[in-house]
Amino acid sequence: MESEPTTSRRLADHPTVRRMAERERSRPAPVTAARLREICLDAGADDVGFVPVDDPRVAAELEHARGILPAARTFVSFCVRMNRDNLRSPMRSLANTEFNHADDETNEVSRRITRALQDAGYRAVYPAPGYPMEVDRFPDRIWVIAHKVVAEAAGLGVMGIHRNVIHPKFGNFILLGTVVTDAEVDEPSAALDFNPCLECKLCVSACPVGAIADDGGFDFQACYTHNYREFMGGFTDWAETVADSADRADYRERVSTGESFSMWQSLSFKPNYKAGYCMAVCPAGEDVIGAYLDNRREHLDEVVRPLQNKSEPVYVLSGSAAEEHVTRRFPHKTAQPVTNGFPDEVNDLLDQIGPRPRPR
After folding, report:
1. d(Cα 320, Cα 209) in Å, to the nearest integer?
2. What residue ranges in the chain does DSSP mark as E strands?
3. Given the DSSP bridges, would you call strands 174-181 and 74-81 parallel, antiparallel or unpaired?
4. What pLDDT does residue 63 have?
5. Nearest to 317 by CA among 279, 350, 280, 360
6. Residue 108, exposed/middle/buried by CB under 10 A (0-12, 13-18, 19+)?
7. 316: which residues sit within 8 A by CB, 6+ positions away?
8. At 337, is the secondary structure helix, strand, or coil?
9. I need a surface site. Which of 62, 97, 205, 256 has the fewest CB within 10 A?
10. How far apart are CA 52 and CA 167, in angstroms?
11. Confidence label for 292 from pLDDT (cuts 50, 70 and 90)
12. By percentage, how much of the chain surpasses pLDDT 70?
């Protein structure tokens, strides 16, 4: 085994080490908010804000930020706009194409910001805006950074009663990204001093499972079971259905051809959301609200009612409030009892919690 002095001398004589020794190495100075904003906008972000990782408003995220970057000092929170009318279409392939491409774009923006910071001498990492996540941890926390929490603190918007962050200009038609960096920003961003949410309750009226209550309560189970049917929980239920089926005829009795094709589409491309209607109908935000204020009836006729009137399967837990809501409120939709992939103890806990109140 080589001695320590021999190893050290060999390292010191390495050409790369000798070149580095000739340079003056020092930690980069704090970056100005104006410069960092310029970097992010040049990378493709539509808006951006900055929050120190030790800010009390993001206290719950500090350990997670330091978990992926021990020297973390700043959250760089940004948003990417989405095309509104794609998301509003009753043809959900249009909405999901936009969701998926915007998700890819958000990842690309995250990566460009991270590269720019790295090239400037800082360290930086970025978690995905959605999936992939640390799903092996389930049912514990699987997301790396809570993008919505950071975005609110960074002034990019406030969560409405539908739990989507509403940007004051772009409305809720955005995807969020976060970069964690050891760069120190000279001027952190301020949170918004108002909530762009109009509390018009259109999201309440459009949600097929009644996940959003009039009083602002939110039923996570109902939303997850239907909207995320072709993500991990719904996939687990489908896979178990395949395993439990005695033969091809039995499987086709349990699962329609359309459902099989839809699951195939999600597996071969990207998982598709089943609704997202709360986002589709939201009229908040300066870029969005004009048409709603000009003619509310037209907004109802062209945006809200086509989603309400769409005949479709709605995935619910058997005996749940969501099943009752679909049957009563949308008799032309088909309540389809399934499981959501959660262990029994998690479902029991969610049942005890019930609809969650709106955060204030």
Report:
1. 10
2. 47-52, 74-81, 124-125, 158-159, 165-166, 174-181, 313-317, 334-338
3. antiparallel
4. 97
5. 350
6. middle
7. 209, 222, 225, 226, 322, 323, 326, 335, 336, 337, 338
8. strand
9. 256
10. 21
11. very high
12. 93
